[in-house]
Amino acid sequence: MRLLLFGPGYSGLALTRRLLPLGWTVRGAVRSAEAAGRLRGTGIEPVDIDDTGALAAAAQACDALLVTAPPDEQGCPAFAALAPILRAGARPRWTGYLSTTGVYGDRGGGWVNEASALNPVSEQGRRRVAAERAWLDLGETLGLTVAVFRLPGLYGPGRSALDRVRAGTARRTVKPGQVFSRLHIDDLAAALVASITRPRAGAIYNLCDDEPSPPQDVIAHAAELLGVPAPPEEPYDGARLGAASRRFFEESKRVSNALAKAELGWRPAYPSYREGLAAIRASEQT
């Protein structure tokens, strides 16, 4: 079985680690020789995005296609590159598109599920809505099995609150009522494998943990695991934050993962930040 990754970064590498032991081969679309060199060290065979023939051959040969690259001002780069190839006859058995729970916008801490209306508050969220629609419409038109996965903040080894506390960059900004969902990178990979195993055309899944929580609690727990004092709490002040941080605090919602559990038989191995951070910390100590 063969996987083609468009945007072979943190998420794609996590899926690769799951699939290689199962006998899959993985190819990743990249633009630079430097990126190609990094991929080879992970067991992924690089494909030059700008080599139309090579990209078409990889898409024609793949059984599964995963798009992780975010959209930009021109739209989804993967769609621009791959839609003509798919229209020309490439037929992966499964195509996954990684989106964001930001498409739901702000719900004042309320719950959302896959049937909730989309109301993004940021330009990035609006681009994601457009990219989702483009991929789902293409799948319906061509008879492809396309699934969309809406993700919250991802964390895992090397990218967690533990790293921010150690680096001295963690802040415990408190905005009353603010909660967010998150997802351990290994739980994302497990859900993607489950979807590849049980494909459904037009599927949309929220993938997240079971316990939406205030961000300051996550930082405090990370500090406790490291045996260091937690950063002091700071009241939210949007004027003092950068644009990315302000966008984060503009949205508060609780995301339901019930559909992915019901249809895919998936359960997060790390149902809250406590289990996830504890596992990362334990791996660091071995």
TrEMBL record:
Domain NAD-dependent epimerase/dehydratase: 97-207
InterPro entries given in the database record: Epimerase_deHydtase, NAD(P)-bd_dom_sf, NAD(P)-dependent_oxidoreduct
Endpoints of the signal sequence: none
GO MF terms held by the record: aldehyde dehydrogenase (NAD+) activity
Name of the protein in its database record: SDR family oxidoreductase
UniProt GO cellular component terms: cytoplasm
Annotated coiled-coil segments of the chain: none
Top-rank taxon, per record: Bacteria
